[in-house]
């Protein structure tokens, strides 16, 4: 059960307005800076992100069809504001993983309750 469009709309209007002030420095969060596929406009999307050996992994709690995911995949790259630093990333890759192995153990359990199995892998520049 990936989070519904209704929850996504609420988060975009309310939760993200708060998160955008802390996601660039708070542990477990980052801001994905990406350009719209059609508009070319810059967007900033707060996400839960975790480090991997060569980059980052993002749990796709709204599924792989979220606009920001499509934008990053189309561009092949984006910037993460992670712990107050701009980090260039590339090689965006969608991964379906029922075991959620790239995530820390407590996060795996929460994602299991939400039935999240899709992730975006990003490699550092």
From TrEMBL:
Gene3D superfamilies: Electron Transport, Fmn-binding Protein, Chain A. Coiled coil: none annotated. InterPro entries: F420H2_quin_Rdtase, Split_barrel_FMN-bd. One of its GO terms (molecular function) is oxidoreductase activity. This is Nitroreductase family deazaflavin-dependent oxidoreductase. It comes from Amycolatopsis eburnea. The lineage of its organism: Bacteria, Bacillati, Actinomycetota, Actinomycetes, Pseudonocardiales.
């Amino acid at each position: 059960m990936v989070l519904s469009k209704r929850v996504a709309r609420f988060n975009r209007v309310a939760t993200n307005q708060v998160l955008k002030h802390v996601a660039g420095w708070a542990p477990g969060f980052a801001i994905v800076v990406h350009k719209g596929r059609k508009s070319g406009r810059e967007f900033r999307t707060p996400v839960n992100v975790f480090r991997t050996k060569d980059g980052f992994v993002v749990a796709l709690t709204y599924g792989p069809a979220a606009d920001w995911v499509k934008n990053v995949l189309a561009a092949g790259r984006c910037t993460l504001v992670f712990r107050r630093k701009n980090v260039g990333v590339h090689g965006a890759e969608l991964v379906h993983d029922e075991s959620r192995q790239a995530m820390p153990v407590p996060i795996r359990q929460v994602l299991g309750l939400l039935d999240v199995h899709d992730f975006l892998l990003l490699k550092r520049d």
